[in-house]
């Protein structure tokens, strides 16, 4: 097929590359570690070209079946990005006397939501973003929540508004979310943002955080390698022309990730609850994005040797050996996958920390648009 | 995989079904014809259950290799839809004393654009939609075109605005299109429309015409069969769970068609200029949407026996035997495809007339929203 109608990578994607590209030296040290398959330690940085060559090679393992996947350490990459954000926040503060502000709204007392919210607020504090805490009771009327959103829309010190989901059943989530002004929609869930994300030649104000994180995780690996060893710049996790399979099609992850990968020139297939024989489709993928919300659904045998596996799932499974009585696992059977994949993100410690970093980054970007005006 | 996060078919999709469902008896007579593979005639309605059984069966041909694909006669289906629109327009006129109005704006003297525009204006006249003709010279300044759009936005008798593309090089298309108020964006190209089309639980004000046409062509076949012979209602062109491959990813066809098919529960892959080995991916498809703009790119050998092939391409190829010196062909090698596919749309006479019908339908819908208020 001849190239047709493609206007090249968007500047948003280019921007993401720059962000990562600038820091590949630190990242390669922190992020490219090989672990023992349980994600528990004994990590060793990849430091010699033979090892990297083997991992890239044909994106497979050939005779070297016992080697493990390269683990993409989202926590380490996120830490680097957060340091950058902190330094930009300091710069804004010094130059303009203003800092970015993020309103985090929570309704009710769901434990998981509370834990996510407190993590986000803590992350804000660490980088110098002012957190506006709005805690509303479970029974708050929808109208009251909406009027709170309007108040935050009007507050010039608030540059991003996040309403923690899910909301209680008596509240219409869609209605509440569409009240957030698009200039402060740091979650990127507004349909106008999604439409611009989908369309060639258009760019959203904000990319949804998890898709942005997923994309950056993929790209960081690629750029790390370019920085590390020019020889390998054309192998590894290159998105263009690769077969990408996105498992799940939620508005907040699966759908926007698939749109983003399509814009980055992957050949994208979306697999979902009505797909016949998902294994056979997933097995063809060079890049797997697991976002189905099904604990350990994707088995080692479903993965093409050498594929890049980005696990967006976070599922609690019973585990009496843990104090909490449960542990978190992804949508991928990590232990099995490590034996087959070329690259993999662990759960926890993969996409999760990156998503929080992207929320901070979106807030910073929103603030810069306003403050620098 | 267990069902997850899917909120069911949107009412927009259901609405499309109803429109077609109501009329399947007329449609089955008009639309389901088998032709001789050149699309030139000798058509015969499918009228006996054995024939339909053979055509559906395993969606393939087995020992019966010489049989031809069922041709989906878009012209006939479009005619039925246009009759319905005409009757609704009469009803509006009788009850409210108002008719829908469509502004068709053309800049310059491109022959193909002029021919499309005159076709659209003629189609308006036939169903009683008032056409507002705006013909601007090639050199019109961008600002003047935009101020014309603003004027049409404000005109209460205009319910739809269509700016014929492409525009001359000195004019920024995206800028002009985004000046059209979303309530009159009958082409459905506004990013807010595309975002809502993409997202679960959201619905666009207008579906872009060609994707809407494509969807309806697929559905009409299905509903024809259900009406015709209950026995076969679960075979044939059922979208849910089927493998659909969309070839091309333009903002106006490929992208929105893929989003629509995903919403209708197909397993969707988008193939484009950077896809490696497109044949092998297309060969897996139960439903092929050809929208690459490459004359006869898709060969018979690329098609899975029994697949439904919807050809959105319209390409002019030299043909000295024609008075005009050229003829129009699709993205599919029609003659070859007829021997392999289960269903196929011809070019011309397939998706094209349906697209014009959808433009009229969108204009009617826009007008009803305003007039009935």
TrEMBL record, chains A, B:
Gene Ontology biological process: photorespiration; tetrahydrofolate interconversion
Catalytic activity: (6R)-5,10-methylene-5,6,7,8-tetrahydrofolate + NADP(+) = (6R)-5,10-methenyltetrahydrofolate + NADPH; (6R)-5,10-methenyltetrahydrofolate + H2O = (6R)-10-formyltetrahydrofolate + H(+)
Domain Tetrahydrofolate dehydrogenase/cyclohydrolase catalytic: 72-187
SUPFAM superfamilies linked to this entry: Aminoacid dehydrogenase-like, N-terminal domain (SSF53223), NAD(P)-binding Rossmann-fold domains (SSF51735)
Region span, Disordered: 36-66
Segments forming domain Tetrahydrofolate dehydrogenase/cyclohydrolase NAD(P)-binding: 226-369
InterPro entries membership: Aminoacid_DH-like_N_sf (IPR046346), NAD(P)-bd_dom_sf (IPR036291), THF_DH/CycHdrlase (IPR000672), THF_DH/CycHdrlase_cat_dom (IPR020630), THF_DH/CycHdrlase_CS (IPR020867), THF_DH/CycHdrlase_NAD-bd_dom (IPR020631)
Superkingdom as given in the UniProt entry: Eukaryota
Entry keyword set: Hydrolase, Multifunctional enzyme, NADP, One-carbon metabolism, Oxidoreductase, Photorespiration
Pfam families: THF_DHG_CYH (PF00763), THF_DHG_CYH_C (PF02882)
Cellular component, GO annotation: cytosol
Pathway: One-carbon metabolism; tetrahydrofolate interconversion
CDD domains: NAD_bind_m-THF_DH_Cyclohyd
Transmembrane segments: none
GO MF annotation terms: methenyltetrahydrofolate cyclohydrolase activity; methylenetetrahydrofolate dehydrogenase (NADP+) activity
PANTHER family recorded: BIFUNCTIONAL PROTEIN FOLD 2, C-1-TETRAHYDROFOLATE SYNTHASE, CYTOPLASMIC-RELATED
Subunit and partners: Homodimer.
Family: Belongs to the tetrahydrofolate dehydrogenase/cyclohydrolase family.
Job description of the protein: Catalyzes the oxidation of 5,10-methylenetetrahydrofolate to 5,10-methenyltetrahydrofolate and then the hydrolysis of 5,10-methenyltetrahydrofolate to 10-formyltetrahydrofolate.
The protein's name in its UniProt record: Methenyltetrahydrofolate cyclohydrolase
């Amino acid at each position: 097929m001849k190239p047709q109608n493609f206007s090249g990578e968007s500047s948003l994607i280019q921007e993401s590359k720059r962000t990562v590209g600038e820091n590949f030296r630190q990242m390669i040290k922190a992020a490219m570690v090989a672990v023992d398959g349980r994600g528990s330690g004994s990590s060793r940085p990849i430091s010699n070209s033979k090892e990297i060559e083997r991992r890239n090679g044909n994106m497979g393992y050939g005779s070297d079946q016992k080697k493990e996947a390269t683990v993409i350490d989202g926590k380490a990459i996120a830490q680097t990005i957060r340091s950058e954000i902190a330094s930009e926040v300091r710069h804004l503060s010094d130059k303009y006397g203003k800092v970015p502000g993020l309103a985090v709204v929570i309704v009710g007392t769901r434990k998981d939501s509370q834990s996510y919210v407190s993590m986000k607020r803590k992350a804000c504090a660490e980088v110098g973003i002012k957190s506006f805490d709005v805690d509303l009771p479970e029974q708050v009327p929808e109208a009251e929540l909406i009027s709170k959103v309007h108040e935050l829309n009007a507050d010039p010190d608030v540059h991003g508004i996040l309403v923690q989901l899910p909301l209680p059943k008596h509240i219409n989530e869609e209605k509440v979310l569409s009240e957030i002004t698009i200039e402060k929609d740091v979650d990127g869930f507004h349909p106008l943002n999604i439409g611009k994300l989908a369309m060639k030649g258009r760019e959203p104000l904000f990319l949804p955080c998890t898709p942005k994180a997923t994309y950056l995780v993929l790209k960081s690996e690629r750029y790390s390698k370019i920085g590390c060893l020019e020889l390998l710049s054309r192998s590894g996790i290159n998105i263009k022309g690769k077969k990408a399979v996105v498992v799940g099609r939620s508005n907040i992850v699966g759908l926007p990730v698939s749109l983003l990968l399509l814009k980055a020139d992957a050949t994208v297939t979306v697999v979902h609850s009505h797909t016949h024989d998902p294994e056979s489709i997933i097995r063809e993928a060079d890049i797997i994005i697991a976002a189905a919300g099904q604990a350990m659904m994707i088995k080692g045998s479903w993965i093409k040797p050498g594929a890049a596996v980005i696990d967006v799932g976070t599922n609690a499974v019973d585990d009496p050996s843990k104090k909490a009585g449960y542990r978190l696992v992804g949508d991928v059977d990590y232990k099995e996958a490590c034996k087959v994949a070329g690259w993999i993100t662990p759960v926890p410690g993969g996409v999760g920390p990156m998503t929080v970093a992207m929320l901070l980054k979106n807030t910073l970007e929103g603030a810069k648009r306003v403050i620098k005006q």
